[in-house]
Design a protein that fits this description.
The complex is a heterodimer of chains A (285) and B (560).
Chain A lengths: L20 H14 L7 E5 L14 E4 L5 H11 L4 E7 H7 L1 H10 L4 E6 L2 E2 L5 E2 L23 H7 L4 E6 L3 H13 L4 E6 L11 H7 E3 L9 H9 L6 E8 L24 H9 L3
Parallel strand pairs in A: 1-2, 1-3, 3-4, 4-8, 7-8, 9-10
Antiparallel strand pairs in A: 5-6, 7-10
Helix pairs in contact in A: 1-6, 3-4, 5-8
Chain B lengths: L1 E9 L3 H14 L3 E7 L6 E11 L10 E6 L2 H7 L3 E10 L11 E4 L1 H4 L5 H13 L3 H12 L7 H16 L19 E3 L1 H12 L3 E4 L6 H9 L1 H4 L2 E4 L3 H13 L4 E5 L1 H17 L3 E7 L16 H5 L9 E3 L4 H18 L2 E7 H5 L2 E3 L47 E3 L13 H13 L1 H6 L5 E4 L5 E6 L3 H13 L4 E6 L1 E3 L7 H6 L2 E6 L5 H10 L5 E4 L8 H9 L2
Parallel strand pairs in B: 1-4, 4-5, 5-6, 8-9, 8-10, 10-11, 11-13, 12-13, 17-18, 17-20, 20-21
Antiparallel strand pairs in B: 1-3, 2-3, 7-14, 12-19, 16-18
Helix pairs in contact in B: 1-4, 1-5, 4-6, 5-6, 7-8, 7-13, 10-11, 17-20
Classes of the chains: A alpha/beta (285), B alpha/beta (560).
Chain lengths: 285, 560
């Protein structure tokens, strides 16, 4: 097997020492290697934030777009060239906050994307404001009276929308994370992997140690097809019990099935059917 | 020349009457200009479908009516003042039995046809009054209504026949159309938005994402209607922000992409405009204008978004903005928009508006089978070494690869970046990268469409206009010239960038420069002043949601 180093590049990550991202990056590379992929077969699409920088620190195609918009950009790219293994990698603020509407729509649309959400429950790049997944009451400079409302529950939301693959990983459990990413790539539709990670600079409560205490594996007897059971595991987050592993698997067909023209290769290279177009125009006579 | 106005409530089938009559006129070898006016509702209200039919080319909507087809009594009251003294008003005799007007011809619909077929019977009467061939109209109706595939076709054909026979026996002198040569082979009936969609398909459009918004939706629906056979991926997005980001993602991955929206949706797309510019991704954006601000008048027309588009997107980057004046130009400039987007690797804009979007004309033939597609301009992968997406080049345009061209890795970033596409905070490198992007304006300038000069070579008055105002302004020039006034028009079908070389001398030599635009302030006039120093002495604007007409322009000119 090729080594994970084929995905290494020359750039030094601009993350804080001890950041959870440092544990996620090699887990992602390892999953790509385990799947036998070459860098030119993989496209990473990200938005903006500390997590969204991750694709810059590996060798692959990269489209680092706008804050919140990784999912629509990835949707366009995947439909345009379904040969590409398209991985969306961004943070909780980007995917669940700025891109919240796209998150809902992408799950319903079900394009074959693997979505990795680095979830550190805080805005890191803008220095410590509350994110959609921040614990209720979390005090920040921007939320001096505490983060309002309960944290957004991405896994419960995805299960309610009948997402095809819903999982939780953790930066503190890198081997399990690699396996989850591989399983997500195997899934023929949108796969959501929410990845818990500490923000060592701005989230002083949810530390490496805190996650060790609050994360536990999905029970071995859990039925992935049982939506009610999956929802119960997802709702456990309300008591700060975070089940790691695959919570739910659905079976909706991916959107690509609807587009026979999207059979592979570079779509722009497919010739224009001038004869058909001439007939279309002539029909207006 | 005959001016036909069909008026009634939404849901009465007045568009059906208009479409079949228009198609009959085009097949009869005539030119048409259709102006549709409708309210933002599905049933009720008051809508109009106006057809100007002529033996020779016409491009302007005009005021006045020769034949009013009034499907409600309200339509009679709203429009009778527009009808010429020797014109004709067709309506339901039951609605206005005691109408004291020589122009009135009450049709006994209740005796002739079932209520559901009233519109088709009115079509029959109108076609007979115009002297159209019965079979020609019946074939047009069959094609439009789906013929025998439509379960109501037999009833429709009977109604058409009843109406035609009734009308034929009551023909008013002077209403019949003049003789014309047979229709040119390949001439078709298209509106502006259909032509944009077909031009885009001809250029090689492969990805369309959109969020529905009047008056842009019909561009998307036309593409969708033919997407399977033309191999185009289409997707209705959750919002305009998603639509534009999807299109940029698809184009990055090698699918020529387009979005279409109106002003309110366009402002949501602006971050995507900026993204296309920064990532240097070809993208065609169609903006179908309607009056703003905010929701404005959703189903009416305007030319109020020029400033918006010329400045759209934060930061500085080159762009091209096209504004077709005719349906033919909608087709041609849609193709050119793709060509410029590919050549300059960035956003290109195409204006239309509700008037042009819905305005059917007799056009073509388009040699669609022979036109070369605007294939994505992709470089060959480097034989050795790393591919650098944003490498320096003489023109500013970097060799473009997309994922899937061998081993080369394509790295694109919305952050400022180095030549290899990775984000950077090296400020000198950032300044150089920005300068290279701005240099691409040279490529855009090389593909510019110069404005059209129309009328007198050395005029006392020159009317400066853009986009869909073309037809009304050119006809205004004709009418001024016919009155012995040396007049000309300068029409821009590309409104950005502006290069004064082709027109500055002629404008300087002209007498009075007057801007004529469907807006209040004179937005093109403002750009001209800023970019060339040429100042219009006056502005004729229109902001009531209706298209410019020669009569409107002449009234405003006379009012000075």
């Amino acid at each position: 097997m090729a080594k994970a180093t084929i995905f290494d590049n020359h750039l030094e990550p601009a993350w804080c020492p001890g950041c959870g991202n440092f544990a996620i990056l090699p887990a992602v590379k390892q999953a790509l290697v385990n799947r036998g992929l070459a860098p030119s077969e993989v496209l990473f699409v990200s938005g903006i934030g500390q997590a969204a920088k991750a694709p810059h620190y590996l060798r692959a195609h990269v489209f680092n777009g706008l804050h919140g918009r990784a999912l629509p950009a990835a949707t366009g790219a995947k439909l345009a060239n379904p040969d590409l293994e398209v991985i969306v990698e961004s943070g909780d603020g980007c995917i669940y906050g700025e891109g919240g509407n796209h998150f809902l729509a992408a799950i319903r649309r079900n394009v074959n994307l693997t979505v990795l959400v680095h979830n550190n429950q805080v805005y890191g790049l803008t220095k410590g404001q509350a994110s959609p997944t921040s614990a209720a009451g979390m005090i920040t400079k921007a939320q001096p009276h505490g983060s309002s409302g309960p944290p957004f529950n991405p896994l419960a939301t995805a299960i309610v929308l009948d997402a095809g693959f819903v999982a939780r990983g953790s930066a503190g459990r890198p081997e399990e994370l690699t396996a989850l990413i591989e399983a997500g790539m195997d899934h023929p539709g949108l796969a959501l992997i929410d990845i818990l990670q500490p923000c060592v600079s701005f989230n002083k409560r949810q530390t490496w140690a805190w996650y060790r205490e609050h994360c536990e594996p999905v029970p071995t007897d859990h039925d992935h097809g049982d939506r009610d059971a999956a929802l119960r595991l997802a709702f456990a987050a309300e008591e700060e019990r975070f089940f790691c592993g695959i919570l739910y698997r659905g079976a909706r067909p991916p959107l690509e099935n609807r587009f026979p023209m999207s059979a592979g290769g570079i779509l722009g290279r497919v010739p224009v059917n001038g004869g058909a177009l001439a007939e279309i125009i002539a029909a207006h006579g | 020349m005959k001016r036909i106005l069909i008026a009634g409530e939404a849901g009465q089938g007045l568009v059906t009457v208009g479409q079949i009559l228009s198609l009959s006129l085009v097949r009869d070898g005539r030119h048409i200009v259709v102006t549709q006016g409708y309210m933002s509702r599905i049933r009720g209200g008051h809508n109009t479908y106006a057809i100007r039919a002529a033996a020779g080319p016409v491009a302007a909507p005009v005021e006045g009516v020769d034949l009013l087809v009034a499907l409600t009594s309200e339509s009679v009251e709203l429009h009778r003042d527009e009808v010429d003294d020797d014109g004709l008003i067709l309506g339901d005799v039951a609605a206005a039995p005691a109408m004291d007007d020589d122009r009135w011809l009450g049709i006994p619909f209740a005796e002739l046809v079932p209520a559901r077929q009233m519109n088709i019977a009115a079509l029959g009467v109108a076609a007979a009054q115009l002297g159209l061939d019965r079979e020609l109209v019946e074939r047009a109706a069959a094609d439009y209504l789906g013929g025998k595939k439509n379960p109501e076709w037999d009833a429709g054909r009977e109604a058409l026949d009843e109406g035609f026979t009734w009308g034929e026996f009551r023909r008013r002198p002077g209403l019949g159309l003049s003789a014309v040569p047979a229709a040119a082979a390949g001439r078709v009936m298209l509106n502006g938005n259909e032509a944009i969609a077909l031009g885009a398909l001809s250029a090689g459009l492969k990805f369309l994402s959109f969020y529905p918004m009047t008056p842009a939706t019909s561009v998307c629906l036309k593409v969708i209607a033919h997407a399977d056979e033309m191999g185009v991926i289409t997707e209705q997005a959750e919002d305009e922000i998603a639509a534009v980001n999807m299109a940029v993602g698809a184009s990055y991955a090698g699918a020529p992409a387009m979005v279409a929206t109106s002003g309110g949706g366009f402002v949501l797309m602006e971050e995507g405009v900026s993204l296309a510019a920064m990532t240097e991704t070809p993208l065609v954006l169609v903006l179908a204008q309607r009056p703003g601000p905010a929701t404005g008048l959703p189903t009416r027309t305007a030319q109020g978004d020029l400033d918006l588009v010329v400045c759209a997107g934060h930061g500085e980057f080159p762009r091209a903005v096209f504004a077709p004046g005719t349906v033919e130009e909608c087709f041609e400039l849609a193709r050119r928009a793709f060509a410029v987007a590919e050549a300059s690797q960035g956003p290109v804009f195409l204006f239309t508006d509700q008037f042009l979007a819905d305005s059917y004309r007799a056009v073509g033939p388009f040699p669609a089978a022979e036109l070369p597609p605007v294939a994505p301009l992709l470089a060959d992968p480097p034989a050795a070494g790393m591919y650098r997406r944003y490498a320096d080049s003489e023109t500013g345009v970097s060799p473009r690869l997309v994922p899937g061209q061998g081993e080369a890795l394509v790295v694109a970033d919305s952050d400022e970046h180095t030549a290899d596409g990775h984000l950077t905070e090296d400020l000198a490198a950032a300044a150089a990268m920005a300068a290279r992007r701005r240099d691409k304006i040279g490529v855009i300038r090389g593909l510019m469409v110069p404005p059209t000069w129309y009328g007198a070579a050395a005029p006392e008055t020159v009317l400066v206009c853009w986009g869909s105002a073309c037809g009304a302004v050119f006809e205004t020039v004709d009418r001024l010239q016919a009155r012995g006034r040396a007049a000309a028009a300068l029409h821009f079908s590309q409104v950005w960038p502006l290069d004064p070389a082709p027109f500055a001398d002629r404008l300087a030599a002209a007498g009075e420069i007057i801007s004529v635009e469907g807006n209040a302030g004179g937005q093109l006039a403002g750009l001209l002043r800023r970019e060339t120093g040429i100042t219009a002495a006056r502005h004729v604007g229109r902001v009531d949601g209706l298209p410019l007409t020669p009569e409107y322009i002449l009234r405003k000119l006379a009012a000075a």
